[in-house]
Structures are given as structure tokens and as C-alpha cells.
Design goal:
Low-confidence stretches: none
Number of helices: 6
Radius of gyration: 21 Å
Distance between the termini: 74 Å
Shape: elongated
């Protein structure tokens, strides 16, 4: 009877060790994730997204650390499924999301899915409120009390963009003298 109990205890300990190693590997994998800036926007707001990508490139962003589906070279490769690609990016990278909020954004099921994924994964995010849209119109998983870059706020837009720039430089470990 004793050898059977001993074997069972050894098996249980071995299983616990295996599980602990798996958990440690998951933690290590999480630490090793590369950062990726994801611009969540409606395709109807492509011009704003394109301008934002141009600005971000001056900070040191490139095709390796920036994803924007409306901008060629930063988008989903030909032949790939949009939802599979986005899901993989959210899981494989340490995502920082810029939400370009507009009426078009809230009219898009895909955008609302991206907003939900940002919330569920507790990804770091910033909001840019597009022209013609207002902070009181923000709803869903985005915190309307979180300070945003409001493009129609001529008094504060430049200051808020500079604050966003600082956050991105810190998160992505970019050189502070760029841009």
C-alpha cells in the first residue's frame, strides 16, 4: 500500500512542478512582448488616421511597432483575415491603443469590437476625439472622464498632443529628442 501512495504523491508533485513551469513560462512570455501602437479608427476617418501615422513616424514609429489598417504598409497583409490578424496582434504584443473616436467609429461594429478588446485586455489607451464629435458623446468601454485629445478644442489640442507624445515616448522607449 505504501509504494502506491508514494507513487501517487510523486505524480502529484511532478504535475504541480509542470504546472508551475508552465505558469512561469507564461509570465516570461508576457514580459517579452514587444510594444505595438494600434490606431483603432473607422475607415471613414482614414484621412485623420493617415495624418496621425505621418506624425507618429517623426517620433520613431515604423512598420514594426505601429499598426493602422487604413494606411498602406501599416495595414493587414493581402490574404490575411482581418479579425484573426487583429486578435493575434492583441495577444502577441504589448498593445497601446489610440482610439480615434467619431460618429463613424460608433457606427462601426469592427471599431466597437476593437474598443471592447482594449477594455477586456486592460490595454493602455489614449483617445483622440475627431472633429465634429464631442466628449459627452463618448460611451461604451471608454472612460469619458479620462482626458482626451479633442481636435476641436483649439485652446488645448496642442498641449494634449504633446502630453500624448510624452506618453508614447515613455511606453515605447523612443528617443526623447525625436519629433
Amino acid at each position: 500500500m505504501a509504494p502506491k501512495v508514494t507513487r501517487q504523491l510523486i505524480q502529484e508533485v511532478q504535475e504541480q512542478i509542470k504546472q508551475q513551469k508552465k505558469n512561469e513560462q507564461k509570465v516570461e512570455t508576457k514580459k517579452e512582448k514587444q510594444p505595438l501602437l494600434f490606431i483603432s479608427h473607422s475607415s471613414e476617418d482614414e484621412k485623420i488616421a493617415t495624418s496621425l501615422v505621418k506624425m507618429l513616424r517623426t517620433l520613431g514609429f515604423n512598420k514594426k511597432n505601429l499598426f493602422c489598417s487604413s494606411v498602406p504598409g501599416y495595414d493587414i497583409p493581402e490574404g490575411e483575415d482581418i479579425y484573426d490578424t487583429l486578435a493575434a496582434k492583441f495577444m502577441e504584443y504589448d498593445i497601446y491603443v489610440i482610439l480615434l473616436l467619431s460618429k463613424n467609429y460608433y457606427d462601426s461594429v469592427a471599431c466597437l469590437n476593437e474598443m471592447g478588446a482594449t477594455w477586456v485586455l486592460k490595454a493602455k489607451y489614449s483617445t483622440i476625439v475627431c472633429p465634429g464629435f464631442t466628449v459627452p458623446e463618448i460611451k461604451g468601454a471608454v472612460n469619458p472622464r479620462k482626458m482626451a485629445v479633442v481636435q476641436d478644442d483649439s485652446k488645448r489640442v496642442n498641449g494634449k498632443l504633446n502630453q500624448l507624445k510624452v506618453h508614447l515616448i515613455e511606453f515605447f522607449h523612443l528617443l526623447a529628442n525625436q519629433g
